[in-house]
Specification:
Blueprint (H helix, E strand, L loop, with lengths): L5 E7 L3 H11 L7 E6 L6 H8 L4 E4 L5 H14 L5 E5 L4 E2 L3 H14 L5 E4 L2 E2 L6 E3 L1 E4 L8 E3 L7 E3 L1 E2 L3 E5 H7 L11 H11 L3 E4 L5 E2 L16 H8 L7 H11 L4 H14 L14
Parallel strand pairs: 1-2, 1-4, 2-3, 6-14, 7-15
Antiparallel strand pairs: 4-13, 5-15, 6-13, 7-8, 9-10, 9-12, 11-14
Helix pairs in contact: 1-2, 7-9, 8-9
């Protein structure tokens, strides 16, 4: 363990080369940091390869059932024991641009001087081939289905937002003192959105950084549970799986963040599955390990 003031929180599963590319870009940042990486039961030799190339990485092992939420929570819990000044969530398929972390830190310092110390800074990513925006800050939709969260395109100045997708996020220790770790209720989806929303409710602020901090391909969200060609029982099986809208976590998320009419939003994905209607929208976050 060095004297870094920054802990980088990561989780991975069976994509060794992608994880190594991410770590290579991370260690080109020219800034002291400690990395906490959960390998959730990979069978492709990820842990051994990471240990060989980057022996300073703190590797924690899972059994294959942690998914994104569980893996990030395990790594975050270990890092929180050491009281860092900043924590960075980083998806292992995100490739940081040179000086990306320094950029996030500078934005934080500028905002802190304006009185925004207990804050989260979100880095936006773009597709490495098309250049299109993929992940970053999020705001509630202004449409009638306001439980949907929409991406905030980065501008030339920091922008306040409601929450974030957790691909690259800088979190001040002042935020962790109020919010702590990711909620264990969320195994895979919703954990990042929930964290940002809880932070705002606690008086913290969430900002999206100007420009892009790196690349990350968009993970396709296949709403096959709304495919009318499938029988209803198959669609219901798909919509309630861990990476979609599992009943327990989805209930907690909607009750917590959707107001007095939360039950209306709760029904939306399941109605889509029952009637096979792809245009009826609902909230979702799909961060992958």
């Amino acid at each position: 363990m060095n004297n870094a003031n920054i802990a980088v929180i990561m989780t991975c599963y069976n994509r060794r080369e992608i994880t190594l590319v991410c770590l290579h870009a991370l260690y080109q940042q020219n800034i002291p940091l400690d990395v906490y990486l959960v390998d959730d039961g990979s069978s492709d030799g990820t842990s051994n390869s990471v240990q060989s190339a980057y022996p300073e990485v703190n590797i924690l092992l899972g059994n294959g059932s942690l998914f994104w939420g569980g893996g990030m929570r395990l790594a975050f819990a270990e890092a929180l024991k050491h009281n860092y000044q900043f924590y960075i969530w980083l998806n292992d398929d995100t490739v940081l641009a040179p000086d990306a972390i320094n950029k996030l830190l500078q934005i934080y310092q500028n905002l802190a001087q304006q009185g925004y110390q207990d804050t989260i800074i979100v880095g936006s990513t773009q597709d490495p081939i098309t250049g299109k925006a993929t992940y970053g800050g999020a705001v509630r939709s202004q449409r009638w289905y306001s439980n949907k969260f929409e991406f905030v395109p980065p501008s030339e100045e920091p922008q306040q937002c409601d929450t974030m997708y957790g691909n690259c996020v800088l979190i001040s220790h002042l935020v962790t003192e109020k919010i702590g770790n990711l909620d264990p209720a969320f195994v895979h989806t919703f954990g990042d959105l929930d964290y940002g929303l809880r932070a705002k409710k606690s008086g913290c602020t969430v900002w999206t950084a100007p420009g892009y901090i790196g690349t990350c391909s968009k993970n396709s969200v296949r709403d096959s549970w709304a495919d009318s060609k499938l029988p209803i029982h198959k669609r219901l099986q798909k919509v309630t799986q861990i990476k979609a809208f599992p009943v327990g976590p989805w209930t907690i998320f909607t009750r917590r963040h959707s107001g007095v009419f939360w039950y209306f939003y709760w029904f939306l994905p399941y109605i889509r599955a029952i009637i096979g209607y792809k245009n009826l929208q609902a909230s979702a976050t799909f961060s992958d390990d």
